[in-house]
């Protein structure tokens, strides 16, 4: 068992209490001998370590930033979304904590098993709907009287929003989230058993002067395949992918077949537009290079070799003399 290490201030306070008689050394010894028992609530089974919860928090902080960008573009107004908390609680407790009538989106996350819930507070949902319809973002809570048009508009808005979850989770798993259900009464949703542990990520959302919460409920069965990847060791380790020899050989062959554009530059010259317009048959343009000097051979417009012109098998050719030496760009 790990021993608790006291700070210097705690040691000084303990010695002071013993010397003044506030504490008795014999009492301390008796306390050490007594068996320490800590109560454990099996209904609130903690199935995720603090390290894994912190990893989930980092993932959904990125998700919050992506949602901020997405909703700001869709609704054309200032929106701020941030992670408020990440907790693991029984599913029953999550259902009790949300309003009796609210906006509930149920998503499948293939290839993972199970489904997750995104609960949007009615104040936020109606503010978004009002902005979608061209309003100022006012909120009116009448979730129990949603029309078919309002239901469709909200479904489309949050169906596309979950695409950002795919990007946020891409560092640990590739998923294909898809909206399966749109519900307003949480009592009609019984995805897992009441005592099943779920992770609830609460997001603070501000739209203009309206604020509220978005809660993401992820059952343990969804996160179970990801658990090994939620440790610090996974985030800190650098994975080295070793290529097989045949992969290198295939890559080398493909590179060798790549075509290059090569040009032999006879010389260059600069003239004015007026001189260019006056050019006619028989005119001569002076190049900036003597016929005795070697030419520059470029590869994809980059100078590589110095060459001299000639013929080979009755075809015009160039002979490489030396590698091109650049200027004094790197000299100080």
UniProtKB/TrEMBL annotation:
GO CC terms of this entry: bacterial-type flagellum basal body; plasma membrane
Could you tell me the keywords of this UniProt record? Answer: Bacterial flagellum, Cell membrane, Cell projection, Chemotaxis, Cilium, Flagellar rotation, Flagellum, Membrane
Residues covered by the Flagellar motor switch protein FliN-like C-terminal domain: 254-322
Question: One GO BP annotation here?
Answer: positive chemotaxis
Q: Which CDD domains does the annotation name? A: FliM
Q: Indicate where this protein is primarily found.
A: other
Provide the membrane topology annotation.
Peripheral membrane protein
Subcellular location per UniProt equals: Bacterial flagellum basal body; Cell membrane
Q: Which InterPro entries match?
A: CheC-like_sf (IPR028976), Flag_FliM (IPR001689), FliN-like_C (IPR001543), SpoA-like_sf (IPR036429)
List GO molecular-function terms, semicolon-separated: cytoskeletal motor activity
Protein family membership: Belongs to the FliM family.
Can you name this protein?
Flagellar motor switch protein FliM
């Amino acid at each position: 068992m790990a021993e608790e290490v006291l700070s210097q201030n705690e040691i000084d306070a303990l010695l002071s209490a013993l010397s003044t008689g506030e504490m008795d050394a014999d009492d301390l010894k008796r306390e050490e001998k007594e068996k320490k028992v800590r109560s454990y609530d099996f209904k609130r089974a903690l199935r995720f370590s603090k390290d894994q919860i912190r990893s989930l928090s980092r993932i959904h902080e990125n998700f919050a930033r992506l949602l901020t960008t997405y909703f700001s573009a869709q609704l054309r107004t200032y929106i701020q979304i941030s992670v408020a908390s990440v907790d693991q609680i029984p599913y029953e407790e999550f259902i009790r904590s949300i309003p009796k009538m609210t906006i509930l989106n149920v998503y499948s996350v293939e290839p993972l098993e199970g489904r997750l819930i995104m609960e949007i507070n009615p104040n936020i949902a109606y503010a978004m709907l009002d902005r979608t319809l061209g309003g100022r973002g006012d909120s009116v809570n009448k979730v129990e009287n949603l029309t078919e048009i309002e239901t469709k508009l909200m479904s489309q808005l949050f169906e596309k929003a979950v695409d950002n979850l795919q990007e946020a989770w891409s560092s640990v798993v590739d998923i294909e989230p898809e909206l399966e259900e749109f519900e307003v009464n949480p009592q009609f949703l019984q995805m897992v058993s009441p005592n099943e542990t779920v992770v609830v990520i609460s997001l603070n959302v501000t739209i203009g002067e309206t604020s509220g919460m978005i809660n993401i409920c992820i059952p343990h069965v969804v996160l179970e395949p990801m658990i090994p990847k939620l440790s610090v060791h996974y985030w800190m380790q650098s994975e080295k992918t070793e290529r097989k020899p045949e992969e290198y050989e295939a890559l080398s062959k493909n590179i060798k077949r790549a075509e290059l554009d090569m040009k032999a530059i006879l010389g260059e010259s600069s003239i004015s537009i007026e001189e260019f317009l006056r050019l006619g048959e028989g005119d001569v343009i002076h190049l900036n290079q003597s016929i005795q000097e070697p030419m520059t051979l470029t590869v994809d417009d980059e100078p590589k070799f110095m060459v001299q012109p000639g013929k080979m098998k009755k075809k015009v050719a160039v002979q490489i003399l030396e590698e091109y030496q650049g200027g004094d760009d790197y000299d100080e």
